[in-house]
Amino acid sequence: MTTPTKVAALVGPDDRIGYEGQWRTVKTTKTDIGAMGRLFVVVAWEEGGTDRFRAGNELLVGPPPGTA
């Protein structure tokens, strides 16, 4: 069985991401350019807070709540 992943640049609202030992739901995303010119994705979580991921990072995705 393979682990479901999604590249950070393709993450969108309502995606469930396994991150820092818990599942979080994506509220919004936007892009940003880092100091060295790299493209980042800024994710705002439904549960509060934001995080930045390099656009090429693979993120662990899961089913919506209540469907697993």
- Give the termini separation: 16 Å
Number of strands: 6
Structure annotation, total helices: 0
As residue ranges, the low-confidence spans are none
Main beta-sheet strand count, sense and barrel state: 6 strands, antiparallel
As laid out across the biggest beta sheet, the strand order is 1-6-2-3-4-5
| pLDDT averaged over residues | 89
- Percent of residues in helices comes to under 10%
Architecture blueprint of SSEs:
Elements: E1 5-7, E2 16-19, E3 22-33, E4 39-45, E5 50-54, E6 58-62
Antiparallel strand pairs: 1-6, 2-3, 2-6, 3-4, 4-5
Verbal overview:
This protein is mainly beta and 68 residues long. Helix content is 0%, strand content 53%. The protein has strands at 5-7, 16-19, 22-33, 39-45, 50-54, 58-62. The chain has a six-stranded antiparallel sheet, with no helix packed on it. The model has no long low-confidence stretch (mean pLDDT 89).
Gist?
With 68 residues, the chain is an all-beta fold. It contains no helices and 6 strands.
Keywords:
68 residues, mainly beta, 0% helix, globular
